[in-house]
Amino acid sequence: MFQLDPRLNQDCHLVTELPLCLVLMMNDNQYPWMILVPKIEGAREILDLSIAQQQQLWLESSRLTRVMQQRYAPDKMNIAALGNVVEQLHLHHIARYKKDIAWPAPVWGKYPAKGYDAATAQQEIMAMSELLEDIKA
């Protein structure tokens, strides 16, 4: 049975559920930062998914990227599947700006996270959920 890694659960807000993935929002208001987590028990690498699941993952990742480009108009979208700390397969989608505090370095470990206030978090969750409505389960 699929369970979200406790660290992702602690560090993120649930945005919505897509056919394959949960969409999470990292609780760091310094960067628009979403994470896709395939709801597949034991998946650690993209290759752990079936071919059909891999195709669905890329479809959902592409759609999330487009939605983030539309909403946030970043200079660059960073997409990564690292898993060095959290082994559960997850894809980070981070909207980056030449003016953000970490540019051009990676965001990991550069600055401590600054959490969203409740109202702003809810606003972002609702907006992103609505923008992803066309591919929800």
Automatic annotation (TrEMBL):
HIT domain span: 1-103
SUPFAM superfamilies reported for this sequence: HIT-like
Listed InterPro entries: HIT-like, HIT-like_sf, HIT_Hint
Coiled-coil regions, chain positions: none
Gene3D superfamilies cross-referenced by the UniProt entry: HIT-like
Protein name: HIT domain-containing protein
Transmembrane segments: none
Name of one Pfam family that matches: HIT
Entry superkingdom: Bacteria
